[in-house]
Fold this sequence. Notes:
By secondary structure, the chain is mostly beta strands. It has one helix at residues 22-40; strands at 8-9, 15-16, 50-54, 58-64, 73-78, 81-92, 95-106, 118-122, 125-131. It contains 1 helix and 9 strands, in the order ββαβββββββ. Strand 5 and strand 6 (81-92) form a beta hairpin.
Amino acid sequence: MRIVRYNYLSYRGAVSSRSPWSGLEGEIDRLFESALGDFAGASPAGRFPVDLYEDKDNTYVRADLPGIERADIGVELVDGTLNIRATRKTRQGEREESFALNRSVSVPDAAVQTEKISAAYENGVLTVTLPKREETKPRKVTVAVN
């Protein structure tokens, strides 16, 4: 969807080609493109939303990937970046189409025990568990009375 741009008279009375609403128009266009992409199953760039949350011991990356087979999902940590890729395959009659989905999340190597990273895929939801290193976990400090 595109909002029609109108020329307006500036305070000097001259016609300007730049609308004062152009920033808002661009933002509305971006929102509609992203909403339509989500409605179709992925954003136009092949990206999908992820949720990041943490508890005392782990950081979690959760992605909703409905309709994707477990074998079509790949997760890897390379140079401080967690890469999630998936391929959605659809069959229409005799024709099969596939659509690649990718998402990258920056993960500081110093904060994660890379050898203990795990991933689980259940009911269309991928959950990647990133265990925290002991030195990055929050510690409770008691205050002594003098």
